[in-house]
Design brief:
Length: 682
């Protein structure tokens, strides 16, 4: 389509905004500003425009709209000025705001846990096929990690010899048993999801005492759907317990198993260099963007795009090569293992297509906006769906189904489609000239190695630096973008404020992509943005102050890193003792609610930005924001202002430092030069 034809087609489908909000007020990312302006010039409507024309429902925002039966929807808005005296609001069946909000919240946990865990199930199935050698395309690559994790799944890595000596067990046998045990966690009806035992012992014992250890991954999610059916669980505290079970089945179960098995199949991530933002697209190359969450297919696409025959075909079609890049968490997966550049985060998916340079956008599951199909319809771009769970009915999409048994061939077919499509570009290409260098791939194993070296890898040096106060604490900052907030602003402000106050940041998901775009994933950024203590540590060890640990399922790596810190000693006995906090500044996905709940239940103070749909049910809200601390040592909080958000986290970190008796050491480190000189002179 020519540029003029694009304008005509877009104009036919777009709603006219009265007065468009300046693009600079919608995002702090200059590449995104350029592409919003370009989309408007072409008359193409994106989420940034729709967020202005469609306002969110105020009752839904408060979490107190119940549509769980056909007698409603029952809506129980907070009266103006709040509740005075007894709260008499009730749905038709008598459901209180607490029941309604906790049911809605629980359904978000269920959806989020299901998304992560179904991803994990697919990985486990592929792993087992690889272990049984039913597929040629996947192999057990990282045998070191296989041997490290097998005991956590109760799989022996040795066998007894004739004289009773321990002999190494056959690697294939270990892999098959591991795959079978992993896959069994989904359908298990009784007992405990096996990987939950990885948590520090006091945490595990607390969960046991509270009766919240998940029995099986699928079971806990199904039980939420049952409990939230009309007329079942009408006690918000009891409902929250089930949220904990399902979310632990996600974080310490489905997500953790996904991370483990992906690492064994594709290699445990170690630091790699790459770059981020829309400027990674190349006008003279076939551009393939991989978008979604799963690395199963994208690993194959990486290999296929390097095939000499396909590179030759690209040349034949007039391209100088094939440029792969990613959006959302599939991007993170192929970045941390192969250094494939990041084209952008969640809110940039439509805009990537607006460049006119994308020959194919290959999508799998989660976080794919339906509107990519409409935007692609204005260009030559092909949207290729690949997962039977996730097809798109609108627009001109094609479906090339991915099957783990024919994965490499499927990937070749997809790359070929993109190459053939390169010749169909007609619209003027406009790629914003912005990209930043980055280092990513900090698995908890890599952090171990970086801190202590191969032979004495340990988290002890990190703990020492926390105890002596150079590092004030640790923050996990993760999650999406949200079109109701200024794109990337809260992510960047919060992370910068944390590192300025010597809090080292562990990141995943779209926060990681945002940090990458502004150069926070480079060791050099430490000197510019960090407090003196953290800057010194980063310089000595050669790491960035913000460590990119991977995709959304890799939040399990943050749990493991926290566990390693506890094990290294000196900072208490449990995750809740650590000077640590969690944050999702611009969350939007139900997965974030599941992640938030398993962080909280793991003992982490967790602050969300934007909004949380519980404000219409003050008693339930208080349970989440305050009462849970007395149960788990971690609790939810909401703070939309990014500076206040960061300082709430820092205040919590300081509270924990005080409880550990290490607050004094921090005061020493914070002395400025004048204070030091005064001390020396005394
Ligand atoms: S991709 S879940 S928008 S982080 Fe994992 Fe980004 Fe949130 Fe999707």
């Amino acid at each position: 389509m020519t540029t003029e034809e694009v304008k005509k087609k877009a104009a036919a489908g777009a709603k006219k905004e009265k007065k468009a909000v300046n693009a600079k007020d919608l995002t702090v990312d200059p590449a995104t500003v350029e592409m919003i302006e370009r989309s408007r010039e072409l008359g193409i409507e994106t989420i940034f425009d729709r967020a202005q024309t469609m306002k969110p429902c105020n009752i839904g925002l408060q979490g107190i709209c119940c549509k769980n039966c056909a007698q409603g929807p029952c809506r129980l808005p907070m009266p103006k000025g709040g509740i005075e005296g007894e709260d008499t609001r009730k749905g038709l069946c008598g459901a209180t705001p607490e029941t309604i909000a906790s049911r809605n919240f629980a359904r978000m946990v269920a959806a989020g846990a299901a998304a992560h865990s179904d991803h994990g199930r697919g990985v486990a199935e592929t792993f087992l096929a690889a272990a049984r050698k039913e597929t040629e395309d996947y192999k057990i690559k990282d045998t070191k990690k296989l041997l490290e994790i097998a005991p956590d799944y109760g799989v022996d890595i040795t066998v007894e010899g004739e004289d009773g000596e321990k002999l190494a067990r056959d690697m294939d046998e270990i892999a098959v048993e591991l795959g079978e045990t992993a896959l069994a966690q989904w359908g298990q009806q009784q007992g405990e999801v096996i990987t939950v035992k990885r948590a520090p012992a006091p945490r595990y014992e607390l969960w046991k005492k509270l009766g919240v250890i998940p029995r099986g991954i699928d079971r806990e999610t199904v039980e939420i759907m049952h409990r939230t059916h009309m007329g079942v669980d009408q006690d918000y505290e009891n409902m929250t317990d089930q949220c904990t079970r399902a979310s632990l089945a996600d974080g310490w179960g489905g997500s953790m198993i996904a991370t483990d098995l992906q690492d064994v199949m594709f290699g445990c991530p170690y630091p790699v260099k790459s770059s981020a933002n829309l400027g990674v697209l190349k006008e003279d190359h076939v551009n393939i963007i991989i978008h979604g969450h799963e690395p199963l297919l994208s690993e194959m696409i990486v290999q296929a795009s390097e095939l000499p025959e396909l590179l030759a075909l690209a040349k034949e079609k007039g391209a100088n090569g094939i440029q792969l890049s990613g959006i959302c968490c599939t991007a993170n997966e192929i970045l941390i293992r192969h250094g494939v550049p990041l084209a952008g985060n969640y809110l940039q998916q439509e805009l990537a297509i607006v460049t006119g340079a994308v020959d194919a956008m290959v999508v799998d599951v989660q976080c794919i906006m339906e509107n990519v199909a409409n935007v692609a319809d204005c260009f030559h771009t092909k949207i290729i769906t690949t997962n039977p769970r996730a097809k798109i009915a609108s627009g001109n999409t094609i479906h090339i189904e991915f099957d783990e048994h024919t994965a490499f061939n499927d990937a070749k077919k997809i790359v070929k489609e993109a190459i053939e499509n390169f010749t169909k570009r007609e619209t003027e290409v406009m790629i914003p000239d912005y990209s930043s260098d980055l280092i990513a791939g900090f698995s908890y194993e890599a952090i171990n190695y970086h801190l202590g070296g191969t032979f004495r890898g340990s988290y002890a040096p990190l703990n020492d630096n926390i105890i002596n106060g150079r590092i004030r604490g640790v923050a996990g900052v993760v999650g999406c973008n949200n079109a109701r907030a200024t794109h990337d602003e809260a992510h960047i402000t919060i992370v910068k404020e944390l590192i300025k106050h010597d809090v080292i940041v562990l990141t995943t998901g779209c926060n990681a992509i945002t940090c990458a775009k502004v150069g926070l994933l480079t060791p050099e950024s430490a000197k510019v943005f960090c407090g003196a203590g953290l800057a010194e540590v980063c310089e000595t060890v050669g790491i960035p102050p913000v460590l990119h640990m991977g995709s959304c399922v890799d939040n399990s790596r943050i749990l493991m890193a926290a566990t390693e810190v506890v094990k290294a000693g000196g900072l208490g006995n449990d995750i809740s003792d650590l000077p640590a906090a969690g944050s999702a500044p611009e969350w939007m996905s139900e997965k974030a609610i599941s992640i938030g709940q398993y962080f909280v239940a793991s003992g982490v103070y967790t602050v969300f930005g934007v909004t949380l749909p519980v404000s219409g049910a003050p008693v339930f809200e208080d349970h989440l924001y305050n009462k849970l601390e007395g149960i788990y040592g971690g609790m939810w909080d909401l703070e939309a202002d990014p500076i206040k958000h960061a300082h709430k986290m820092i205040a919590h970190i300081d509270k924990k430092r005080k409880a550990l008796g290490i607050d004094k050491s921090r005061e020493r480190v914070l002395m400025d030069m004048a204070a030091r000189q005064k001390l020396e002179a005394a």
